Amino acid sequence: MRLFSGPIALAAVLATLPSPAAKAQSWVDPALLEAARKEGTLVIYTSVNEEEGLPIWKQFEQDTGIKVEYIRGSDSQMIGRILIENRGGRPAWDVVAVTSVQRLPAALLAEYEPPQAAHLFPSARDPGRRWYGFAANYDVPAYNTRLVKPQDLPQSYEEFARKTEWAGRTVINESDTEWVVAFLDHYGESKARELLRSLASNLKPAIVGSHLQVARTVGAGEYMVALNNYVNLTINVKLNGGPTDFWALDPIGVFYQQIGIDTQAPHPNAARLAANFILSPEGQKLLTRRGRIPTRPDVETNPPGVLQALHAKKVMPSTYNPEKERKADALFKEIIVGRVR
């Protein structure tokens, strides 16, 4: 496997022949595998950190003998790189795996339906067949299990807003657009504004720079609760021994890590095989090792029962809508960030 966070390769090519186990995998189409092996390489542009992503794609490499070049950066860096390459007429990527694939021009994304996509939650499938969700980000609160008892957790955001004893001991990320979109869709603008104002005024949440930082500061006991965070990050801290957990409140926003294929992919068969792999039960199970949430209901979460707890509530998928996102972002900055600062 070759890893690039820039131009430097960090690992060597593995065997060129697939392991016998590859033939037994649900995602392997023998004809597609043969064609992909002739191409020899798969180039991935992704925002998934190396610690989580590399073991998954190393498994793909071992099962197929296809060399993986793993190029990692932020969502904006990967999208920017793709657009620059396209303008220059020299695209170098095969698949992109970020949360913002749907923001790319449709002409850059191949129409393709991996067979394993039929098993995804409907909202994780692009009707245009240009992207598919391979991991889900659900928006819910989190708490420190040493500082807060489960019986003291509010059962609605209205009740949450009355927890004035948590004022100054609450935290949130500096931007939570999808969470606000779910509020707007669920409550309507007037009620959403009123509730967000109550949460900000009464809880006085601290603002931090990343969702991972939110999860870690709650797990470390710097804050008692997070007003909102991604479930998978809370679980990641929990799996690493942190005293933290999530609880589900209506509404729950969800959006996806998405995979898409380049219309001019240098290795188109390897790209199709890779998309089917990451959407398969085997690929999805690998994603759960560090707390990622699968996008198919037939794959169990780690720890078990997370999807059942989430889908017992009102789950509201966030579809790409620039106008609605601008409105939600402005509302968050005005009410949450503005009132705190």
What does this structure look like?
The protein is an alpha/beta fold and 341 residues long. The chain folds into two domains: 2-136 and 256-290, Periplasmic binding protein-like II (D-Maltodextrin-Binding Protein, domain 2); 138-254 and 305-340, D-Maltodextrin-Binding Protein, domain 2, CATH 3.40.190.10. The protein is built from twelve helices and eleven strands. The chain has helices at 30-39, 50-64, 75-87, 157-160, 177-187, 189-203, 211-219, 231-239, 268-279, 281-287, 306-311, 322-340, and strands at residues 2-4, 41-46, 67-72, 95-98, 132-144, 170-173, 206-208, 225-230, 244-246, 252-261, 315-317. Strands 1, 2, 3, 4, 5, 6, 7, 8, 9, 10 and 11 form an eleven-stranded mixed β-sheet that branches. Helix 2 links the parallel strand 2 (41-46) and strand 3 (67-72). Helix 5 (177-187) packs across helix 12, helix 6 (189-203) runs parallel beside helix 12 and helix 7 crosses helix 8. The termini are far apart.
Topology:
Elements: E1 2-4, H1 30-39, E2 41-46, H2 50-64, E3 67-72, H3 75-87, E4 95-98, E5 132-144, H4 157-160, E6 170-173, H5 177-187, H6 189-203, E7 206-208, H7 211-219, E8 225-230, H8 231-239, E9 244-246, E10 252-261, H9 268-279, H10 281-287, H11 306-311, E11 315-317, H12 322-340
Parallel strand pairs: 1-3, 2-3, 2-4, 6-7, 6-8, 10-11
Antiparallel strand pairs: 4-10, 5-8, 5-9, 5-10
Short summary:
This protein has twelve helices and eleven strands.
Main sheet overview: 11 strands, mixed
Strand content: 15-25%
CA-atom Rg in angstroms: 21 Å
Strand element count: 11
